Amino acid sequence: MKGSLNLAPYALPPLEAGEYQVTVIQETSISNCKVADAVMDFAVEAEQISVAPGQVYSTYPPKGAVGTYGSCLAHLILHRRTLPWERTLPGAVRGIPWVALLVFSEDENVRVSDADYKQAVTPTQGVYIPTINRRFGSDSEPCRFIDIPRPLFEDVLPDKSDLPYLAHARKISLDDKVTDGQVKSEWFSCVTANRYPRTPNEGEDAVKHSAHLVSLEGFADYIYTADRKAHPFCTCPTVRMFSLTSWEFWCARVEFDFSSLVRQLSADTLRPQVTMEQPALQKLIALGYCPLDHLFREGSRSVSWYRPPLLSQPSWEGTVAFCHFADSLLRYDPELGMMDITYSAAWQLGRLLALQKTPFAQQLMGWRLQNKQKAATRQNIRTLSVALNVSSRAPSAPDMENTCRDIWQDVTQAVVDTCGRSDPAGLEGAVLPRFQRRSDPKGRLRTNRPSLSQQELLGLFEDETSE
Questions:
Q1: Which run of H or E residues covers position 87?
Q2: 370 with 301, same domain?
Q3: What domain count does the chain have?
Q4: Are 26 and 212 spatial neighbours (Cβ–Cβ below 8 Å)?
Q5: What are 336-364's pLDDT values in tens digits?
Q6: What per-residue confidence (pLDDT) applies to 393?
Q7: Percent of the chain with pLDDT over 90
Q8: Of 265, 298, 330, which residue sits at a domain end?
Q9: How far apart are alpha carbons 67 and 255 in whole angstroms?
Q10: 224 plus 255 within the same structural domain
Q11: How many CA atoms lie within 13 Å of 14's alpha carbon, on the beta-carbon side?
């Protein structure tokens, strides 16, 4: 259904991360015949201490954003819908996520460190390090971990009754969405934080927050135990957790004005964070351009440059010429061998935005129909002008009367030829139309009467024969 949103409490993978063995046994009815069993071992890998940046589709609040997020629960969307459920915590049932999203403010003294896995699990005085069952990966694999004060850890760690509601799978329609080329499926997974960001106190403009997608492996015995005070980390002032991915944002005060927002704007957020080796490409990136997939009308594909309307600097281009088609605004850069689709895309977007308004579409169709009728009228005038041997301009009454007289004389001659010159009596009673000159002072024809009698017809005949 178009525009629908489907939600699911979880999306279980066919196989969880781990090691598996497949054994095939074949039994036959042939005596003294035994077929050896076939055994195959294989493993299913999944993220454990980090998540690739390409797996994160979007975050909210956005990375580096400043806003009034005091009443919003931070969350992130992952491309792979099964990622939060690809591992099962000991003591938990299937469908419980093995990750959680924790949000900390800058004044909560959470230390963030980047190192390799071996350094992360090296015992440190006063720090509780969880034990995880790591089957794959090397000790030199880079990772990020956070050291949390134990009282804060006990407050922010989700309870076992909350975990099922902090992650879900969702299916959305991609028909009317602008997405990148990496989006291949309509299914995504979403992980939500369990507490709100802290709003600024009096005298604070904004509070910096960090959101971390952490692994819960090694903490299942604490989450699902009845006596948490007996857990080993209760003797340590600090608890270490692996941060699979993270981002930062600022929570501002509710009382603000427009000028304060403008002062906090950063033009760097409008500039693509891409580094190019070629100076010409780096210059285009600095100007606000970004490469996008381009599907041509004949079906071929390429990569073209596009510059969005929100620029990090004033526009350097002048007025764009009027055109009838979007392709007329395509530009080619011979130095790079690529097209610029900026104005072509803007033209197409403007047309679509206009046509979605019903009154505008109706007026446009009426205007087109009126122009077609006028064009048909002009064509008919030109055709009749050629047939009547008159000017294509609108004929006056005298011109029209003279032309009609010539036509009717030709008709009269045809009748005379048909009835016979030797027997004029055969025309007795024949009355043919004739336009009499009756015009107003401006020369416009007013009336016409069919009044050519037999005698007048014979007179025309005699005049022609005497000549």
A1: none
A2: no
A3: 4
A4: no
A5: 788 888 888 888 888 888 888 888 888 98
A6: 59
A7: 28
A8: 265
A9: 11
A10: yes
A11: 2
311 belongs to a structural domain? yes
Mean pLDDT of the chain: 79
Of 265, 289, 305, the last residue of a domain is 265
| Three-state DSSP class for residue 179 | coil
- What is the DSSP code string of 245-294? EEEEEEEEPS---HHHHHHH--GGGGS-----SSHHHHHHHHTT-EEEEE
- Distance in angstroms (rounded) separating the CA atoms of residues 20 and 12: 17
Indicate left, alpha or beta for 462 from its phi (over 0: left) and psi (-120 to 50: alpha).
alpha
Element (H, E) at 78: strand 75-78
The pLDDT of residue 414: 65
> How far, in Å, are 243, 303, 462 from residue 440 at the CA level?
97, 71, 33
The pLDDT of residue 403 is 64
* Contact present, 84 and 99 (Cβ < 8 Å): yes
Is pLDDT at 443 greater than 90 in this prediction?
Answer: no
Query: Could you tell me if residue 240 is inside a domain?
Result: yes
Residue 310 or residue 118, greater confidence: 118
Which residue range is the domain that position 365 belongs to?
357-393
Please indicate, yes or no, whether residues 217 and 286 belong to a single structural domain of this protein: no
In a domain, 368, yes or no: yes
Look at residue 370 and tell me whether its pLDDT is greater than 50: yes
| Beta strands in 117-237, from DSSP E residues, in sequence order | 127-128, 142-149, 167-172, 187-192, 206-215
**Do 239 and 277 fall within a single domain?**
no
CA distance 456 to 114: 116
Cα–Cα distance, 5 to 258 (Å, whole number): 34
Asked whether residue 88 falls in the same domain as residue 171, the answer is: yes
Q: Are residues 235 and 339 in the same domain?
A: no
The pLDDT, as a whole number, for residue 330 is 86
Q: Are residues 127 and 231 in the same domain?
A: yes
Longest dimension (CA), the chain: 139
Per-residue model confidence as pLDDT tens digits over 45-54: 888 899 988 8
Residues 137 and 207 in one domain: yes
Q: What pTM was computed for the model?
A: 0.55
Spatial separation of the C-alpha atoms in residues 219 and 228, rounded to whole Å? 11
3-state secondary structure of 434: strand
Q: Which residue in 338, 344, 346 sits closest to 276, CA to CA?
A: 338
The reply to whether 428 falls in a domain is yes
Element (H, E) at 372: helix 358-388
Q: Kindly give, in sequence order, each residue whose CB lies less than 8 Å from that of residue 32, ignoring residues fewer than 6 positions away.
A: none
User: Would you state the pLDDT for residue 442?
Assistant: 47
